[in-house]
Amino acid sequence: MTRKNHKLRHASTSTSELDKARASGKKISIPSLKLVVLKPIGYPLRSIGDERPISITTDNIKLFEAYAKEQWSGFYVKEGDFLFDQFMYPDFAFEVVKVSPRGGGRISNKTEIRLKVDTLSPVVREIPKVKFSDVIGHEKAKNKCKIIQKYLKYPEKFGEWAPKNILFYGPPGTGKTMMAKALASETNVPIFLTRATDLIGLHVGDGARRVHQLFGEARESAPCIIFIDELDAIGLDRRYQSIRGDVSEIVNALLSEMDGLNPNLGIVTIGATNAPELLDPAIRNRFEEEIEFPLPTKEERFEILKLYAKRLPLPVKVNLWKIAEETEGFSGRDLREKILKNALHMAILKNRRIIDEKILREVLTFARKQLKMDGWTGMFL
Ligand SMILES: Nc1ncnc2c1ncn2[C@@H]1O[C@H](COP(=O)(O)OP(=O)(O)O)[C@@H](O)[C@H]1O
Ligand SMILES: [Mg+2]
Questions:
Q1: Mutate-to-test residue for ligand 1 from 131, 168, 178, 327, highest number of ligand atoms within 8 A of CB
Q2: Burial code of 137-170, b = ≥16 C-beta within 10 A, e = fewer?
Q3: Which ligand lies nearest to the CA atom of residue 172 in the structure?
Q4: Based on the structure, what is the number of domains in the chain?
Q5: Which of 80, 196, 207, 236 has a 20 to 30 A CA-CA distance from 253?
Q6: Residue 196 falls within a domain, yes or no?
Q7: In this structure, what are the phi and psi dihedrals at residue 56, rounded to the nearest 5 degrees?
Q8: Is the pTM of this model over 0.85?
Q9: CA 229 to ligand 1: nearest atom
Q10: 3 alpha carbon – ligand 2 mean position (Å)
Q11: Confidence category of residue 47, pLDDT binned at 50, 70, 90
């Protein structure tokens, strides 16, 4: 509450136009602001396990406006200044992101005050409908997921020995995301799906804040799963981090959150990457287990083709075993998207009632050429 006594001073700590004008002894007129837009940005300091809110919003903007005026009327602000809450969440900071007139001025009773809430959430929270049995192969990952499932259901059985951070690695399209979704679905818990690249914000500080927000929301939804895809984008080896600007702050935020998770809470973090060797060793060490998602074997390709062929709206009259033999190097996603989906589209285009060998061959030849052009050469291509 101490800041209340500073009411007639400006909000920022830097020397303001107002101070300069005062010092020069000139007569000053401070404009009253027409508009102030505030963005809630968090606390200047936070300890791990801090229970204070990560983000703040309002139920009613008029109420917020009255509340804001009550404490900040008379403050001199300009764009980029910070205002600290004094009542409900002492020291929670709001950034002044816009003022009118542009040069700044005094908050008065007539000032319109708006709250800018970050709607661009990097996180998708969902309970998907995918089963373990939909995922072909990856038995080791499935076994691990079944342990995690037990933990999410009965965290008390595990105590301090809880599984916490797992790394899925392997080529794109091999089912890493799908497996994490199946785990959430079979356990009936929410999964927070995010990509490391989405955590990087526009401004310095955004990324770390998003990481804290993500874990904060997860704590409120526990038991749950946090899935961070493309981890190498931020978990880069420190040798490469300088190229990526403020990623190190995100790495640090992530490390502190991963370490700070209370094992009894029922939150499991799954990271995914195609390039585990690029990861910062500090991040990589936080994962108690690394599970490989290899490209499917011939038998698995056959199973994947069968699984999705059954779901196509047109019957597939093709020897799928032969297709499996000829698709070494294809991922599950390639088989589904580049082979089966394209075959269906071609059949529809040609007004066919079935997907026959000829159509599939054509699509296969095209897909193999495409894979080659992408700079990828499988053994048999
Ligand atoms: N092993 C698999 N079994 C069944 N479907 C798979 C498998 N691997 C990939 N797929 C299909 O490919 C899609 C993309 O896989 P995804 O989980 O996003 O791969 P990753 O996360 O490893 O890049 C899945 O939604 C699924 O339709
Ligand atoms: Mg994926």
A1: 178
A2: bbeebbebbeebbebbeebeebeeebbbbbbbbb
A3: 1
A4: 3
A5: 80
A6: yes
A7: -130, 140
A8: no
A9: 21
A10: 48
A11: confident
Residue 87 sits in the same domain as residue 201? no
Token pair, residue 359, equals 């159509």
Domain edge (last residue) among 257, 276, 292: 292
Range of lowest pLDDT (246-255, 305-314, 322-331): 246-255
List ligand 1's pocket residues with C-beta within 6 A.
135-138, 172-178, 272, 293, 296, 304, 332-333, 336
Residue 339 gets which letter from DSSP? I
Q: Using the 3D structure, point to which of 241, 273, 292 is the last residue of a domain.
A: 292
The rounded distance, in Å, linking the Cα atoms of 45 and 322 is: 61
Predicted confidence (pLDDT) per residue in 214-272, tens digit = 888 888 888 999 999 999 887 666 655 555 556 777 888 888 888 876 666 789 999 99
* Closest ligand by atom to 303 CA: 1
**Which residues are in the CB-under-5-Å shell of ion ligand 2?**
177
Do 237 and 314 lie in one domain? The reply is no
pLDDT in tens, 87-99: 999 999 999 999 9
Q: How sure is the predictor about 365, in pLDDT bands with cuts at 50, 70 and 90?
A: very high
Pocket test for ligand 1, best of 133, 142, 167, 174 (most atoms within 8 A of CB): 174
How does pLDDT run across 55-96, given as a tens digit for each residue? 677 778 889 999 999 999 999 999 999 999 999 999 999 999
> Ligand 1 pocket: which of 135, 195, 333, 334 to mutate (most atoms <8 Å of CB)?
333
pLDDT at position 138 over 60: yes
Residue 341 CA, ligand 1 centroid: distance in Å: 14
Cα(172) to centroid(ligand 1), Å: 8
Question: Sorting pLDDT into bands at 50, 70 and 90, what band is 46?
Answer: confident
Gap from CA of 229 to ligand 2 centroid (Å): 6
Domain check: are 185 and 255 in the same one?
yes
Q: Which domain holds residue 21?
A: 2-115
Other residues' Cβ atoms within 10 Å of the Cβ of residue 352: 15
Q: What is the CB neighbour count within 10 angstroms for residue 321?
A: 14
Judgement on whether residues 253 and 310 belong to the same structural domain of the protein = no
198, 303, 349 from 120: Cα distances, Å: 10, 39, 38
Q: Does one domain contain both 85 and 178?
A: no
Let me know whether 199 and 130 are in one domain: yes
Same domain, 149 and 258: yes
Give the ligand with the smallest distance to the CA of 142: 1
